[in-house]
């Protein structure tokens, strides 16, 4: 029993070590290094991607300032374009 719990602990440490330093973006097939270790946006969904590019292209100056220089934003912004057409928000995947 003790052997199983030690193996489980080692497994969790390895998984944590592999996931914490990166943003994993499965929809874009990207792995992006984080600025600092955290659980924030470790696994990024397509909805998260759309939220990020929407802030970058359509956000207020304050929102744009908050995400400026973020490695995740920098990597994703070049792959998407977002614009409005009347009341509709259009998300266009570029690459």
Radius of gyration: 17 Å
Total DSSP E strands: 4
Give the strand content. Answer: 15-25%
Distance between the first and last residues' Cα = 50 Å
Instruction: State the helical fraction.
Output: 40-55%
Biggest β-sheet strands, sense, barrel: 2 strands, antiparallel
Strands in their spatial order, largest beta sheet:
1-2
> What's the mean pLDDT score?
87
In DSSP terms, counting alpha (H) and pi (I) runs of 4 or more, how many helices?
Answer: 4
Which term fits the overall shape? elongated
Q: What letter string, H or E per element, gives the SSE order? A: HEEHHHEE
The unreliable regions are: none
Specify the structural class: alpha+beta
Characterize the structure shown.
The chain is of the alpha+beta class and 95 residues long. The chain is built from four helices and four strands; from the N terminus they run αββαααββ. The protein has helices at 2-19, 46-58, 61-67, 71-77; strands at 22-25, 30-33, 80-85, 88-93. The strands form two sheets. A two-stranded antiparallel ribbon has the order 1-2. A two-stranded antiparallel ribbon has the order 3-4. A hairpin with a 2-residue loop joins β3 (80-85) and β4 (88-93). The longest helix has 18 residues, at 2-19. The protein is elongated, with a radius of gyration of 17 Å. It starts with a helix and ends with a strand. The relative contact order is 0.13. The mean pLDDT is 87.
């Amino acid at each position: 029993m003790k052997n199983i719990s030690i193996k489980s602990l080692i497994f969790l440490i390895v998984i944590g070590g592999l996931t914490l330093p990166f943003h994993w973006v499965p929809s874009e097939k990207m792995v992006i290094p984080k600025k600092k270790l955290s659980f924030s946006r470790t696994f990024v969904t397509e909805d998260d991607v759309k939220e990020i590019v929407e802030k970058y292209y359509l956000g207020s100056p304050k929102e744009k300032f908050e995400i400026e220089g973020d490695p995740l934003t920098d990597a994703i912004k070049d792959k998407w374009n977002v614009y409005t057409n009347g009341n509709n928000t259009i998300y266009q995947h570029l690459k």
